[in-house]
Amino acid sequence: MKNTLNTILAQAPSVLQKHPAVGGLGGVGGGILYWIEIAGPVLSFVGVVLGVGVAAITLHLKMMEWKEKRKKLNN
Description:
Radius of gyration: 29 Å
Number of strands: 0
Distance between the termini: 89 Å
Order of helices and strands: HH
């Protein structure tokens, strides 16, 4: 196992020299993970705000409907 790890570590610089995109993609991937961690709570908050907004609008429309029914029953 130790020999395998040493072999992999010894070959890593040559692989990165031959394929520099691997290092670049690793950096981009790390940046994306950073932004996902930041965006997650923000997107959750936006989702909750939208949900509360839809619920408020639905309740308002239902109350208007109930008022119309009540007016018809009283007349």
